[in-house]
Amino acid sequence: xxxxxxxxxxxxxxxxxGPSGSGKTTMAKFLADKLSFEYIEGDDLHPKAxxxxxxxxxxxxxxxxWGWLYNCGGACAMQLDDPNVKGIVMTCSALKCAYRNILxxxxxxxxxxxxxxxxxxxxxxxxxxxxxxxxxxxxxxxxESQLRDMQAPKDDEKDAYTLNVNKPPEESKDDCFxxxxxxxKKEETxxx
Length: 192
Ligand SMILES: Nc1ncnc2c1ncn2[C@@H]1O[C@H](COP(=O)(O)OP(=O)(O)OP(=O)(O)O)[C@@H](O)[C@H]1O
Ligand SMILES: O=C(O)[C@H](O)[C@@H](O)[C@H](O)[C@H](O)CO
Description:
This protein has helices at residues 5-9, 24-35, 48-55, 62-80, 97-107, 123-132, 143-149, 169-187, and strands at residues 11-17, 38-41, 87-91, 112-120, 160-164. It is an alpha/beta fold and 192 residues long. The protein has a 5-stranded parallel beta sheet, sandwiched between helices. Helix 4 packs parallel to helix 5. The longest helix has 19 residues, at 62-80. The chain is globular, with a radius of gyration of 16 Å. The structure holds adenosine-5'-triphosphate and D-gluconic acid (GCO). The site of adenosine-5'-triphosphate has 19 residues, from helix 2, helix 6 and helix 8. This is Gluconokinase. One of its GO terms (cellular component) is cytoplasm. It comes from Schizosaccharomyces cryophilus (strain OY26 / ATCC MYA-4695 / CBS 11777 / NBRC 106824 / NRRL Y48691) (Fission yeast).
């Protein structure tokens, strides 16, 4: 089936980024549902070795992450080719600017606009949330290293937005949806 370029112009990709416990999965699932976009969980694309490394309490380094980031970009690019997909919400920590550049690069020839929503919360909150979580490979003592690597998007990353998620989950979900709608309205990529 041939692609309809007009339809494709309207596609949008939201990367929900941030450190462990910031609420990426919670926000992304909610947003994908509200927008009827595809949801992709970036953690599912980590090689087994990365999950094992994090599970053993060792932070990932750049070398561990490059391949995974290309996989994340690739997974989005594949989904965008599906004419039934009007947008994607993907979780991906994308802690550093260089990591976000890989995602941007992977998608620059694809017919969709890329946006990042950085979920910002103080260390104490991240520790509280990750401590409360059971049966997750990423333990609370990894928060420190996540924040060490976290490069909050600066003003020159025009496609990146910061959301304060130091709030109850329902409030954060509403804020996230409102922000996404604003972005889409601004970009005119999505009309309801
Ligand atoms: N805004 C929020 N306020 C309070 N708790 C939240 C909020 N968002 C998520 N949580 C809770 O914090 C925990 C971590 O959330 P979630 O798994 O979505 O984060 P995450 O960034 O995807 O984490 P990870 O990357 O480590 O898997 C969950 O128990 C979730 O219910
Ligand atoms: O780049 C990284 O260090 C990882 O993607 C992590 O951020 C975790 O996988 C995630 O947060 C789950 O706890």
